[in-house]
Design goal:
Keywords: Monooxygenase, Oxidoreductase
GO molecular function, one term: monooxygenase activity
Number of domains: 1
CATH superfamily: Luciferase-like domain
Number of strands: 12
Protein name: LLM class flavin-dependent oxidoreductase
Pfam family, one: Bac_luciferase
Oligomer: single chain
Strand content: 15-25%
Organism: Peribacillus psychrosaccharolyticus (Bacillus psychrosaccharolyticus)
């Protein structure tokens, strides 16, 4: 389905991927890194053709994930898409040089004609710290310094700056400059109010990862974000909240549960295994996790749309992005999910969240 409509009402809707490489639990087949990257690019093209608003790629430095440099894959995607926004999801900001990051994403912005964005986080994995020579003891301090430097880079063509963790800058020219006046940057927040408060204090977007349970338990993060922004005198209209989470959509909710359960179980089995944790989940528990009043977006288009709308009533967020491709799910199923999200879920959500 090709959708060239540019002006949309309601919240933005998109998808993101971490590029995990796991065996299909039904066939035992594991795709190669090359195939996984090709499928990520094709998924972005499908999302753009279908009329979704955002496509994101996460960063990991492990052999069981396909993408260590989101900006390179996003640059390839920029060449085969026309309208969709292209974002990291997330960039591990504690272990990347902010100048290099800014220049890379400015280049992406030029290649994509103004579609580049960044979601920055501290990362759930810590491999990048020893890999790039950073001390894990500076986990939070590195993030704080790097995001503040990035925001300065975003404002001026040349800057002078001095910090704790990198060499000083003296009238340094920061090139190239993006098409956009500023590169949009969001802070990825897992569950800490301190991270939400920081995003609000800085006056930038906040992307919340809601992977299950009751959505209401994340309301304090949104409240803290807006309270912190108000205290720092940022205009409410400049604040943006995004909700991110796992999703699987099929014609009926029972079909969605039946098809997704082995992949969901598989995903959390190897993710928890990476952290030395054994994972157990019964089908009965999974059905409870996907009940209408929970935050796991698994079900029919109508049920998924209703969950997004209920969360919008709770958070008043501006963007929803779904992770559709976890646990070794075959690309055919991912493509079907993109089509259902764009053709059946998005119209319901956009209508319900449009200004009255």
């Amino acid at each position: 389905m090709k959708n060239d409509k540019k002006d949309r009402s309601g919240i933005e809707i998109g998808i993101y991927t971490f590029g995990d490489i796991g065996p299909d639990p039904l066939t035992g087949h594991t795709v190669s890194t090359r195939q996984r990257i090709s499928e990520i690019i094709e998924a972005a093209k499908c999302a753009d053709d279908a009329g979704l608003d955002v496509f994101g790629i996460g960063e990991h430095h492990r052999l069981d994930y396909a993408v260590s440099s989101p900006v390179i894959i996003l640059a390839a995607i920029a060449q085969v898409t026309q309208r969709i926004k292209l974002t990291s999801a997330t960039t591990v900001l504690s272990t990347v040089d902010p100048v290099r990051l800014f220049e890379d994403f400015s280049t992406l912005d030029l290649l994509s004609n103004g579609r580049a964005e960044i979601i920055a986080g501290r990362g759930a994995y810590v491999e990048s710290f020893p890999l790039f020579g950073y001390d894990l003891a500076n986990y939070d301090a590195l993030f704080e310094e790097n995001i503040e430097l990035f925001l300065k880079l975003n404002k001026a063509e040349s800057i002078s700056w001095n910090g704790r963790f990198r060499s000083p800058l003296s009238n340094a020219e920061i090139s190239p400059r993006p098409v956009q006046n500023k590169l949009p940057i969001w802070v990825g927040v897992g569950g800490t109010e301190e991270s939400a408060a920081r995003a609000g204090r800085l006056g930038i977007g906040m992307a919340i990862a809601i992977l299950g349970g009751e959505a209401s338990r994340f309301k304090p993060l949104v409240d803290r974000y807006r309270e912190s922004a108000a205290k720092a005198e940022h205009a409410p209209e400049d604040l943006n909240v995004a909700v991110t989470g796992h999703a699987y959509i099929a014609k009926t909710t029972e079909q969605a549960r039946d098809e997704f359960f082995p992949y969901y179980f598989n995903y959390w089995s190897y993710v928890n295994g990476q952290h030395g944790i054994q994972y157990n989940l019964s089908r009965r528990d999974f059905d409870q996790l996907t009940a209408p009043d929970t935050a796991l977006f698994v079900g029919s288009p109508q049920q998924v749309a209703e969950k997004i709308i209920c969360q919008h009533e709770l958070f008043g967020h501006q963007r929803f992005i779904a992770q559709l491709d976890i646990g070794g799910l075959p690309f055919k199923k991912v493509a079907e999910g993109i089509e259902l999200l764009a053709a059946e879920v998005a119209p319901i959500v956009r209508k319900a969240t449009s200004p009255k």
